[in-house]
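Chapter summary example: a protein plus guanine.
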Amino acid sequence: SQCKAYRASVFHCIADPGVVGAERSYEYFEDGLLVVEDGMVVEVGRAESVLPSLSPEVEVVHYENALITPGFVDTHIHYPQVGIIGSYGAQLLDWLETYTFPCEGQFDDSRHAHAQADIFLRELLRNGTTTALVFGTVHKQSVDAFFERASKLNLRMIAGKVLMDRCAPDYLVDTAESGYADSKELIERWHGKGRLSYAVTPRFAPTSSNEQLELAGKLFKEFQGLYMHTHISENRQEIEWVKELFPERDGYLDVYDHHGLIGERSVFAHGVHLHDDECRRLGDTGSAVAFCPTSNLFLGSGLLDLAHLESHGVRVGLGTDVGAGTSFSQLQSLNEAYKVLQLQGQKLDPFKAFYLATLGGARSLYLDDRIGSLQAGKEADFVVLDYEATPLVSYRLKHSKSLEETLFALMILGDDRVVKETFSAGASVHRR
Ligand code: GUN
Ligand code: FE
């Protein structure tokens, strides 16, 4: 068995700081030690107290001026959209037509898909993200490519083939039946294999017929532990369009609800313009919303009201939504999340922020028993953040008087440059 220890400052969230009472929401060890064996965390604590119990053969890797935290969790991202990040001048529906669909059209070519999956995964790991909920394209080979690459790195990843049988270019649509059959084939090939899970992935209500949504709901129930991943209430024109396409339904969420697409392991990206009754229904059913601040600002979609969602008990994770989002870095998502909430008179304190990017994301994905913190028994997915990554970060952190201030400076100033090393199941998968 392979045992190794990592010495640095260690910080991890162990509960939601917004809902805990007397309980502490995090642990911090200024001189900490993380002990990993066979890809799992076996112990975490103060170096002083853990070291004496460690067998002398165990190698201890010491990082100076660095912080070990759990790997980041990205609850909404599109792997085929790397090539269109930062495309100029459009809001959601134009952006889809002008940039997104032509880009996704190229993924019928499996070689292209493999190459893009490589670039995408390398970028995630460079940014310290070890788990993501990922859109493929409509082509089943796009998902094969993604899972093949993710499984080689032994990453905990969730992905699915896009279901889209209308209101999209001919080269990019499936049918209700082929979408169901292709998804089922992918589920049988990949779901539960190693650390991979499958997500039934209707793009959003406008691009699926009622027949397709019905079959998606049927599929969602057919296998244990499947996810459902889609978009909702991102943009006002989109919401109007859904009303026109589904006049018989009670609103956007009701379209998904009617077809059995909500509940535990259902993740809805954006939710910027959800109504009160929709938030309540999401909370009551254990569904989750992915908060994607860089995307919502970039496409001019709107400001997510986090306090409102949380008042209804909705699970909220953080998403980059690359390629509408403008950064792979969850630190940059937090930077923008802070400002989105500032504009609404809400505060995002750094403990809550890091919770959203780690354990809160894991909880949204019902994976908080496996990832999201560094407690013993969890999978050893972690990152080493470098306090001296850039002259500015270094200067700023030298003047920090508290952990709170340090974490806040990291989330405002940090990005891929502060990620010194990334570990997945105990193995180093990126090193700067
Ligand atoms: N709604 C439907 N498809 C998409 C997409 O690819 N990106 C975003 N941000 N919203 C969508
Ligand atoms: Fe998206």
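Key point: The radius of gyration is 21 Å.
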